[in-house]
Amino acid sequence: MSRSRAFDIAVAVLIGVLGQLEAWAGVGATHQQGPAWAQSLLYAVAATLLLWRRHQPLAVLAVMTSVYLVEFALFGSPEGYGVALAPAVATYSAGRCAAPRRSWLALPLASAFWLGWMSFDPLNEVASTAERLETAVWMSPSIIAWLSGALVRVTLLYREQRVATHEQQASRAVAEERNRIARELHDVVGHSVSVMTVQAAGVRRRLREDQVVEREALETVEGVGREAMAEMRRLVGVLREADGAAPSLEPWPGLGQVDRLAEQFRSSGLPVSVTVTGDPRELPGGVDLTAYRLLQEGLTNALRHARGASHAAMLIAYDPDAVRLEVVDDGRGARRPAAASGADVGADAVGGMVSSACGSASRSTAGHCGPGHAPTAGSSSSRCFQRLRRHDRRRPARGPHRRRPRPRAPRSADDPGDRAGRRCRG
Known about the structure:
By secondary structure, the chain is mainly α. Helix content is 59%, strand content 6%.
């Protein structure tokens, strides 16, 4: 049994006992009217109804008022504290527990109780109108009870709102701290691991073909570095998840979803055809995602910047050691102003995706889409992804922890180390 239920039972028992003392012994009564058993039964029913005052406060008050009015009509209205005690508790419960938009209905019910008590009181038959109006003071306990209940309800609601606001602020602080940790992990650890992986790849590609042991060791370093980066990205994603939010289980898009991509652009008003040559194969997750984003960026440029384009075509060619992408359209390229255009911004975004996938592509990977380029988007996307397979050694990373690299003698076109650095194999 809960504490509130036990308290309700105790209140009902107390009010029932006081009513019985008034009905049979006259304790607290100023005028008894009708047989004692009728008054005793009235107080017993009223006390029993109080057991449901929390669950159905308005219904309890309505039934109690009806029972009182019936007893008053049959035997007359008695006078005493027991008459007003149970209705006052029921009115308080209506103000405290009823819905805010319905709790005001307790006031008309309390007024009906007072009017019935005043009308059926035999002592008021010979009273003047002024004396009858003076009895309105006995309605004040019900009004005070309702106001007290409404005050308690508002106070508790305000306290709950403060607790909810405090919890929201705490959750926001936790989320901000998680984002800060995620940023620090990405900026510090991710940068360091990326530099080590890229440098190991650069050293491996400059080895001679007879340096097998060194090449295997550096390949191990590269693999461990890429695995560490993937795990760190997963950890950062977990840290950035909001409290109680389920992590996204949707897989990353890839070349296997180009049909859906084409359908999206068809619904936007640009007919798109898809052509796949070669034997499709599974690509590494990062390369697959980058290829999808390149096609998406090419179609976006064709839709936004190719004037008069009525058709676009995607070509995906699976070569033995590479994947070639091309997006072409039949529109005219927009003029390129002196400032950076929207196509330039898209090209920079493509360059960033290529850098993320390969880890060593230069800033110039993306190229630009301007007048005279037909197709507008296809030239950019195709050139971008071909550059994905190259390793750029012309612009080494610099910083306070890096020394300027020593100049090296140029390699010939037949150097096996240079040939090995031309492709980023997946």
